[in-house]
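Quick review question:
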């Protein structure tokens, strides 16, 4: 290819003039890579976990993502989803397909600073709950006397990178639920009671807050457990299913043109039925576990009421139990 065009001058000589520049291709028509498709799929999984997409929309967009060939086909898939880490309703932005450094994880947006939405709770022969979207203050105090309480931090924001939850449980109990990635430190004192130290010692993720659980338990207990939200469990299940689909696609490519395709289809149906059966079993076990815990709680409350009646009778009759 020549870079100049020869033309005749009036004096009879040849004069060189530059060739017009070649037209640049439209960026929207450039081919997308597997990494680009994975980045869009990750945004869709985050949107599913945050409740911005239901399962039907998620599956439809995920299928369109893996079948897209160009940037122009990928960009509309996330055009109505907010940027990663936004907590208010920002201007909708599509997923950037440039090779830019990734911003820190979701913990950066969950440490909001300021004051907490609730700083104390009391349960006297009753119960309390702090769960859902709320802001944990730098120090949260709670008391459970002949009662119980639940403090769920899985969907909460944090006023500081280090928060203190002070629990006093007297013939009662308090259960603290923390999300994965949070560092837990337990410093409570128990007298004929105790604090749960099983979740202590696990290092936290970068930028994640630190939860310090202190207090006093007398004939009671303070439990600590680490759980995923229902949306996160569903997203993980979908990620495992997607990995299985990718492995099956690889196997189909290896056995293309052979009779193994029919066996693969039969195996996929069988695995799908097994997965559905396992999911049903897990759901039934979870429901059975919850009912058993409720029955045990009611039984414990009946025993406590019966013990109180015996103590009252003993005091009236001059006897102590």
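Suggested answer, residue by residue:
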């Amino acid at each position: 290819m020549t870079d100049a065009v020869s033309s005749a001058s009036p004096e009879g000589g040849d004069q060189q003039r530059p060739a017009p520049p070649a037209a640049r291709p439209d960026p929207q028509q450039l081919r997308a890579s597997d990494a680009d498709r994975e980045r869009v799929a990750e945004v869709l999984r985050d949107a599913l976990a945050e409740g911005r997409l239901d399962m039907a929309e998620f599956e439809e967009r995920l299928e369109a993502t893996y079948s897209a060939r160009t940037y122009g086909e990928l960009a509309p898939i996330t055009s109505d989803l907010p940027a990663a880490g936004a907590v208010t309703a920002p201007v909708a932005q599509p997923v950037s397909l440039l090779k830019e450094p990734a911003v820190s994880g979701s913990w950066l947006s969950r440490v909001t600073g300021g004051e907490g939405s609730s700083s104390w709770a009391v349960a006297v022969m009753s119960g309390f709950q702090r769960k859902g979207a709320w802001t944990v203050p730098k120090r949260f105090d709670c008391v459970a006397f002949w009662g119980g309480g639940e403090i769920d931090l899985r969907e909460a924001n944090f006023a500081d990178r280090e928060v203190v939850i002070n629990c006093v449980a007297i013939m009662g109990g308090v259960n603290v639920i923390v999300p994965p990635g949070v560092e837990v430190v337990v410093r409570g004192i128990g007298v004929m009671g105790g604090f749960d130290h099983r979740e202590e010692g696990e290092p936290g993720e970068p930028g994640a807050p630190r939860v310090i659980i202190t207090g006093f338990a007398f004939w009671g207990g303070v439990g600590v457990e680490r759980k995923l939200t229902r949306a996160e469990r569903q997203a993980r299940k979908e990620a495992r299913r997607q990995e299985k689909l990718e492995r099956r696609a690889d196997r189909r490519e290896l056995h293309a043109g052979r009779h193994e395709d029919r066996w693969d289809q039969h195996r996929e149906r069988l695995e799908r039925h097994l997965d559905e059966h396992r999911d049903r079993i897990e759901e039934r076990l979870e429901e059975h576990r919850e009912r058993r815990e409720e029955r045990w709680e009611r039984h414990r409350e009946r025993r406590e009421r019966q013990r109180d009646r015996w103590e009252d009778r003993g005091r009236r009759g001059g006897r102590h139990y």
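Why it works: The chain has a mean pLDDT of 79. The CA atoms of residues 43 and 150 lie 32 Å apart.
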